[in-house]
Amino acid sequence: MRVFGTQRGTAYGYSLYEVEAYGTGSTTPPPTTGTNLDDPRKKEIAMKLVSSFENSSLDWRAQFAYIEDIKDGRGYTAGIIGFCSGTGDMLDLVERYTAKKPGNPLAPYLPALRKVNGTDSHEGLDPGFPAAWRQAAQDSVFQQTQEEERDRVYFNPAVSQAKTDGLRALGQFAYYDAAVMHGEDGFRAIRAVAMSRATPPSRGGNEKTYLNAFLDAREEEMRKEEAHSDTTRVSTAQRRFLNENNYDLNTPLYWSVYGDPYSITS
User: Fold this and answer.
1) How far is the C-alpha of 241 from the C-alpha of 263, rounded, in Å?
2) Of residues 20, 59, 69, 72, which has the active-site annotation?
3) Cut 0.90: pTM above it
């Protein structure tokens, strides 16, 4: 359902479980903290990770105004989590924003958003919709609504399901990132494949074995679609953290996406 906004570099040569040897990351497993992803500090880490995947930047708050058609069949992709004009979540967002603040710059486009939902069409949106989005993104009410919708639709359900499955912060993040890209139905399908191959910790399974199965299923799903075919957000980011046994997503974190290195050190 979601895709990265900017793809840079080439990273297709990495093996499935490769861990990159750059930066100063240690191979010693970090201490266990048991802190979940909905802890404010962990959530900030999650937002930065997804922003590196989707926008090639750790500054996720700079993405409220982001909008482009990345030619993935979902129309416009925009905002901090890649709301799409073709998948319904952008329509929900603008409707909720308009309920709070009638007469906002995006309100006139609601009829067009309803019409193009489920398609990649720009009918009724061009040429003014991108500029209207960027204008609305300066409004703190719209920013707050983007965050609320991110949490309501993606973050909270994914983290809740991961907790139910007995997963710590890394697994919670893996679920969330899958929901961001593939939507709720796509995430559920990936989880179902993983559950058919491995047992989650909540049922007595090994956490690493189960997460490897989930990430395998995730990469398989990504490769089915050209827009998602670069799997480095899994293979050289989430898989790296798993190989380091960093189940709590403790810093420092070192990873790469599309060939570009990133780090969060504190």
Assistant:
1) 12
2) 72
3) no
